[in-house]
Write a structure and sequence with these properties.
The protein is α+β, with helices and mostly antiparallel strands. It contains eight helices and 15 strands. Bound molecules: FE2/S2 (inorganic) cluster.
Length: 330
């Protein structure tokens, strides 16, 4: 049954819009556009972002989480995306105030999107060799290449992986164009998504290979980074901000080389790494430890596939946003 809800006086309401209000089981976003009050569902069709906190650009409100847009008049997306729709509620201005009617006059309309190819698994046939993914985070101008000690050690480890019969993949972050994390997690836990919202909406972003390698492909992941002034490379940080993934590393999970804080004669550093049998051997051993550890895990795979209590936000399902409004799935 249709019910009209009084929201308040025009003058008082004008000061408060845009606003979110719960009317019965509907979460409603109220806007003032070209002098008229408009009411649409407050819950974004994408991941449930609060539309009342979005920015108005003309008649479209932009979701504050990942920038999907909806008309505050029709509830539809802009041209080309107008099959999606959030609920639209009738609004009336009467002498005693502004009223909104429930249920909505237009229901939510969701379009089934193709699942991201990042959700496709890369299954291995039983008995297939382990997969070793090496990621170089060294920044370098490839037109004017230089010798990278961290890359050299990473390549030694990869050689050892090949000798042990593993499938290998080598990703150099410097060859990929990918965007910085936009900090959606800082807006809300739900706003940080998997697959990443950047990957979903920017086909030019090339971090896909890293995601596929880390999530679906690699049994063993080895990362190489230069350490400058005590820090990993900027590309390393740019990458790890994006995936938000957890790893298990074997004991003594890294090798590192330093001649001391005051050794600023890098040419000698390079010479020493090139000549060092110890470091080369250490790279082989690092790979051996990781691969041996994976072999143990793989043997116990069936036990590990059982549901287990895990820590961390991504390990546990977040409560669904309020989507109690009537829904139509096209
Ligand atoms: S754009 Fe609204 S939740 Fe992603």
């Amino acid at each position: 049954m249709a019910t009209w809800h009084r929201l308040g006086d025009r003058s008082e309401l004008s000061q408060r819009v845009p606003l979110a209000i719960k009317l019965e089981r509907w979460s409603v976003a109220v806007f003032l556009y070209e002098g008229q009050f408009r009411a649409i569902g407050n819950t974004c069709n994408h991941k449930g972002g609060p539309l009342s906190e979005g920015r108005l650009r003309g008649e479209f409100v932009m979701c504050p989480w990942h920038a999907w847009e909806y008309s505050v008049i029709t509830g539809k997306g802009p041209e080309g995306y107008d099959e999606e729709q959030v609920p639209v509620f009738a609004v009336e201005e009467r002498t005693d105030g502004v009223y909104v009617q429930t249920p909505p006059t237009m229901p939510r309309k969701l379009i089934k999107h193709m699942p991201s190819h990042l959700l496709e698994e890369h299954p291995k046939t039983p008995g297939a060799p382990p997969r070793v993914l090496a990621i170089s985070t060294t920044a370098m101008d490839d037109v004017n290449p230089r010798f990278s000690t961290s890359d050299a050690l990473l390549e030694h480890a990869l050689d050892q992986a090949k000798r042990r019969g593993a499938d290998t993949q080598h990703i150099k972050l410097r060859d990929l164009r990918f965007r910085h994390c936009e900090g959606n997690y800082s807006k809300a836990a739900r706003a940080c998504t998997w697959p990443c919202a950047i990957t979903e909406r920017d086909p030019e972003d090339q971090l896909t290979a890293v995601y596929e390698g880390l999530v679906h492909w690699g049994d063993v992941v080895i990362i190489g980074t230069p350490i400058r002034w005590g820090n990993a490379s900027s590309l390393y940080y740019k990458m790890i901000e994006r995936p938000e993934l957890g790893f298990v590393f074997p004991p003594f999970p890294f090798i590192a080389h330093s001649r001391g804080w005051d050794a600023e004669d890098m040419q000698n550093n390079v010479r020493q790494v090139k000549m060092s049998d110890t470091l080369r051997e250490a790279s082989y051993e690092l790979l051996d430890r990781a691969l041996d550890f994976w072999t143990i895990i793989d043997k116990h795979k069936t036990e590990m596939d059982k549901p287990m209590e895990r820590a961390g936000r991504k390990a546990n399902t977040l409560p669904e946003p309020e989507t109690a409004e009537e829904e139509v799935i096209a």
